[in-house]
Each structure stands twice: as C-alpha cells, then as structure tokens.
Write a structure and sequence with these properties.
alpha/beta, about 25% helix, purine salvage, UPRTase/APRTase
C-alpha cells in the first residue's frame, strides 16, 4: 500500500512562483487515499477522550465528518460568516491579504465539552486559532487539533502553543 504522501499532488509555482501547492483533491479522488487519510486522522485520536469534532468550512467538513461518524461523535461545522441560520458566535482573524470572519452556532458547544478540531491543512494557524477562541468562549475545552497536512515553514504551530497539535504529513517548506 502507498503512503499518504504519495496520494498528495504537488503543484510547483502555484499560486505564485516558488510555492509548492499541496493538492488534497488527489487524495479524495482515490478510494485508497481517502481511506488512508481518514484512518490516519482517526489514529491520531486513539488515546484522546473527547465529545465533539469540529471542522472548518469546507475541507474540515470533508475530513471531520467521516472521522466523527467512525468514532460515533457529534460534528460541529465552523462556517464563513453569514452561512449559519441560528444564533452564532463569531471570530475575525487576519489573512495574508486581508481578514475573514468565521462562525459557529452558539449552542454547538456547551461548558465542559471536550472538542477535537480537524482540518486538512495548517499554514499560518490563524483560522484554527479563531476556532479555538470561539470554542473556549462557549466554555469548551480543545483537547487536540489534527491536520492532514502541515506546512511547517509557515510556523502555524507558533499560533497554537499550549495545545496538543498533530499532523499526518509535515512538509518542511511553505
């Protein structure tokens, strides 16, 4: 069987020269790659006691929901501003060229809930840090943060100091 890294398509000079884009769609398009990705994320959680998996729009949904299903846990979607129909909590954060706001339902996490965050990629860490702020504001505790891929050259883990962070694949560059 192939290693997960072999399913990830690397595209040089995208979106700009000198950048290697790590394309997760090639993992999703292969049944063995998708199964390996989900199983690898589940493996990272084998010794963690938690109640809820939360994932960010949209690839955090793609990977978080099957893990939640397989482990019989609830799933909480964290979405772009304006996409959720009920009372929400929001958090804004900086992007490379601007800012963004994400939201989650205010009743999605209760005080004392133990939460795992799952996403496809950590780059600078801003999105996940915003997720942490919302979960903690609602009284939840982030038990672990798991990524399929990490771009270590962008130092995203620095934003997440004090949290249990794990990645299935770690790329040294940007």
């Amino acid at each position: 069987m192939k290693r997960l890294e072999e399913y990830v398509r690397s595209i040089p000079d995208f979106p700009e020269e000198g950048i290697i884009f790590r394309d997760v769609t090639s993992v999703l398009q292969d049944p063995d790659g998708l199964a390996l990705a989900i199983d690898s994320l589940k493996e990272k959680l084998k010794d963690i006691d938690f109640d809820i998996i939360a994932g960010t729009e949209s690839r955090g949904f793609i990977f978080g929901v099957p893990v939640a299903y397989a482990l019989h846990k609830a799933f909480v979607p964290i979405r772009k501003k304006g996409k959720l129909p009920c009372d929400t909590i929001s958090e804004s954060y900086d992007l490379e060229y601007g800012s963004a706001t994400i939201e989650m339902h205010r009743d999605a996490v209760s005080p004392g809930d133990r939460v795992v965050l799952i996403d496809d990629l950590i780059a600078t860490g801003g999105t996940i840090k915003a997720c942490i702020h919302m979960i903690e504001a609602l009284g939840g505790k982030v038990e672990k943060i798991v990524f399929l891929m990490e771009l270590a050259g962008l130092n995203g883990r620095e934003q997440l100091k004090g949290y249990d962070v794990d990645s299935v694949i770690i790329y040294g560059g940007k």
